[in-house]
Write a structure and sequence with these properties.
It comes from Pseudictyota dubia. It is a multi-pass membrane protein. It is found in: Membrane. Keywords: Membrane, Transmembrane, Transmembrane helix. The protein folds into three domains: 67 residues; 180 residues, Growth Hormone, Chain: A (Up-down Bundle), CATH 1.20.1250.20; 38 residues, no CATH class. It is built from 16 helices and no strands. The longest helix has 25 residues. The radius of gyration is 23 Å and the shape is globular.
């Protein structure tokens, strides 16, 4: 939506306002999303809750939300190898998305001699795939989990990334405009499906540090965008080479799925499934020791059960 509104609607309008000055039109049109983002931020701060249950300060005051050390949570998440595998893989899906959003217009202009307005409309196809592709990645990850347990999620993740890399390589070699549009659409689907499947794995890394792990993995996106952006900047006259490098890195990130070692689950090369890990994720045992927690523990079999859960969480 941003590509088509900015490039195909607002840019021609601003160019008309500035008497055909393309440079001035591009510079001023970029102010629009900044203003929209600022207004949206104010609306969110003023009109929304912190979470579905209300405001964090109220939940902490009433004891519904236990105090958690952010530093301890971050250490726990950052010391886990699985976190960094997901960080790299998210760099190779969301980072690729950000890079392509930035580079696609100039690529179509330079490669096929299109007008900026037309190139922006074509590039917007990549973003529009977000309407369903990211959700599909999470959906198929869930379905694979139900049938093959954790190995299913990891296989979906690896498949999305490997197919993404293959599609990027084919896209870079495509010489016709029509074929390029088709390949852009297909590889966009795998890019965003990989984003969804990534966060299908995140909660299983360490349930006690899911927030920190989510943040670290999410940071992989901008990191990947910067890294891939530097490659495109280093080869401004050879975007095909830059796309080929991107494809190789993405393929490598898919192979990294072999190294996942999620505790309590059978991975592609390591570990074995333990029912306790699945039960802990579905019904996490609270660190608090209120009467309701004790009752739940009794129903699940005694304090020995809790000790085993905590040992394997």
């Amino acid at each position: 939506a941003t590509q088509i509104v900015m490039g195909s609607v607002l840019y021609p309008l601003f160019k008309l306002i500035w008497g055909g000055d393309e440079e001035m039109a591009w510079r001023t049109v970029t102010i629009v999303p900044a203003v929209v983002a600022f207004i949206t931020g104010i609306i969110i701060i003023r009109g929304s809750d912190d979470c579905p249950k209300g405001y964090y300060k109220d939940l902490k005051r009433t004891g519904e939300m236990p105090e958690v050390s952010a530093a301890a949570s971050f250490r726990t998440g950052s010391y886990n190898l699985n976190t960094w595998i997901l960080y790299i893989q998210y760099a190779c899906c969301f980072g690729v998305e950000l890079t392509v959003n930035n580079a696609a217009v100039s690529y179509f202009v330079d490669r096929f001699g299109l007008a900026i307005e037309t190139a922006s409309a074509i590039a917007s196809i990549f973003g529009f795939m977000n309407l369903f592709a990211r959700g599909f990645g999470g959906y198929f990850s869930d379905k694979a989990m139900g049938r093959f347990k954790m190995r299913g999620r990891i296989l979906i993740q690896a498949a999305c990334l490997i197919l993404e890399g293959v599609c990027i390589f084919i896209f870079a070699q495509t010489a016709s405009l029509a074929a390029s549009i088709v390949m852009l659409t297909i590889f966009s689907i795998f890019v965003q499906a990989a984003e969804g499947s990534t966060y299908g794995i995140v909660p299983y890394v360490d349930s006690k540090a899911t927030g920190a792990i989510s943040g670290i993995v999410g940071a992989g996106g901008p990191s990947g965008a910067v890294s891939f952006g530097l490659i495109f900047r280093a080869y401004p006259n050879d975007p095909i080479f830059a796309f080929n490098v991107m494809a190789g890195v993405v393929l490598g990130s898919g192979v990294l799925s072999l190294l996942f070692n999620l505790k309590g689950h059978r991975n592609l090369l390591f570990g074995k499934d333990r029912d306790i890990a699945l039960e802990t994720l579905a019904l996490p045992v609270s660190d608090e020791t209120g009467p309701d927690v004790n009752d739940d523990n009794k129903k699940n079999g005694s304090d020995a059960y809790v000790n085993e859960v905590e040992a394997n969480a």
